[in-house]
Amino acid sequence: MRFVHDNLPQRVCFGSGEAAASLQREIANLNTSRVMVIAAEAEKDLAEGITKSLPIAIWHDDVVMHVPVPVAEHAREAAATANADVLVSVGGGSTTGLAKAVAMTTGLPVVAVPTTYAGSEATPVWGLTEGARKTTGIDPVVLPKVIVYDAALTLSLPVPMSVASGLNALAHCVDSMWAPNADPINAAFAAEGIRSLAEGLPRVVADPFDLDGREHALYAAYLSATAFASAGSGLHHKICHVLGGAYNLPHAQTHAVVLPYVLAFNAPAAPEAERRMAQAFGASRAIDGLQDLRRELDAPRALADYGFTEDAIPAAAEAILPAVPPTNPRPVTGQDLRRLLRAAWSGADPREKS
Amino acid sequence: MRFVHDNLPQRVCFGSGEAAASLQREIANLNTSRVMVIAAEAEKDLAEGITKSLPIAIWHDDVVMHVPVPVAEHAREAAATANADVLVSVGGGSTTGLAKAVAMTTGLPVVAVPTTYAGSEATPVWGLTEGARKTTGIDPVVLPKVIVYDAALTLSLPVPMSVASGLNALAHCVDSMWAPNADPINAAFAAEGIRSLAEGLPRVVADPFDLDGREHALYAAYLSATAFASAGSGLHHKICHVLGGAYNLPHAQTHAVVLPYVLAFNAPAAPEAERRMAQAFGASRAIDGLQDLRRELDAPRALADYGFTEDAIPAAAEAILPAVPPTNPRPVTGQDLRRLLRAAWSGADPREKS
Q: Which residue, B14, B45, B166, B340, is most buried by CB atoms nearer than 10 A?
């Protein structure tokens, strides 16, 4: 047992239907009185409902996916003009990301109210895009001071997006088990996240208005992001990063398809992780638990369904190989990657030896 | 699911045989150059061995149990005279406690190197005694900035003290499950702590030099303290606090004896906690897991063995009743407490209905 683990300062307020009350209390606790609310047009009604009692200085709805630099600049100018002293973001990953971009240059505290399972609210990672180029970094100042989790705000998240977002969170948990900075604390969060997703997601699919199911998924999103931000990117995320960048495959679906193949590949070489994940899934083997869950959620099955072609496999394997973390529990060869990608391309059973 | 959870900023460095290297790195990271080493005479050799490369301004060995106010004052003056800019504590709870007392008035950062499973290093709780009166409080400034866990430093902790200290940590975990601020995050830490103690303590008893066993126990001490500091005192700690204060019973033994009776009382009314603890113990019921572990450790059995008398039961129950947390999962009557204390006094099987 050998690790260095940084616990980051953050307050987590969790309670369904309590976002308005929590926000009022936390804004007062922070001794702030000029709130900039950041919420996309689509979330405007929702954001208005929970910020009624706040001392709002300005509303800002210019939110764009992946936080383009001009969009960040616009928000920073708006914050300065309004003399805002705190940022309240209401929305998914892009909205939280915009608040972080403002915090980065202004030092203003962020209170994040997430409405998806993206998890950005629990990490000090920021991201900005300039044209097609994405830059990311880590800065403690962008970590939201407070997260307000209210599962009632997620009831309108459509089932397919909930499943995609939830499986993305699950991939964070699984990959945290063997990522470069994996440690027992991250593993405990990740195992708890797997348990909570395996409990919550099927209930959300069965009934999108199942508040208890939504709470489990939202709580798991927090855990998965906390574990992943500390553990770093493992084999799974390195593979998906290359596939997403070079082949323009959809983010969430790529993660959902690739995850079982990485799990089946790594788990035999990581017995402690396997034991913990199996227990969290409530299955005799982690891969069985994951496949049962994927079946229940009608999860994406094959990369071929999203435009990835068989002839792209060799080049993709070439591109992934140098990115494989040296700490991966099992050595990875080019042949291993070609086999893995072929199976993921065709949607073969990951439990079969190919 | 409804909670507010504060994550506190702290760096945890874990590695056997790495204390010297970790200290050197972390003291440099903190930009400090005048170290005050706080270590009792008994830990002097151990402390010298790991602080050789540090820029030491002063050594301080006037450490006394429960941190009497004059002892705290002495240490504060020593820090001021030496113009120290960082405190490095090497020792058990009293040593960490003294460093906290200095931090409280000076704001100096603390780097804690624990040599027992007391867990004080992971909490913002300080304690001072004036005569027989103990005052405790919470102040973020006393939370050590860095913890350096090195299980090699705990190899000389005698087995009986290891067991007592370990069962004290176990009580923190169990009580965190239903304490006033119990929440799922605390429960995850507590479950991980139970798992790690149930793995480590029997190995320490079988072989005090089993480094892997020591690592499990030390890691669990961290988890238990983190969970307990956040969750607060539950029924178990309220009972032990009264017994310790009014009847002068030994701290660790009292905890070891009382814990199974509180667990047997509360668990049927806390099914989720019961499920998690049973799983962590690897037993069909949590109480079976605890009793198996206690047997393996030859743990203290009955309050009668420590001077508690049968005729003290009614008054003790009276004294405990007003301290029972209103949030306890099961209502507690005076009769319940008398039954529980009688069973703990005699060492009866906690699984038997009395």
A: B166
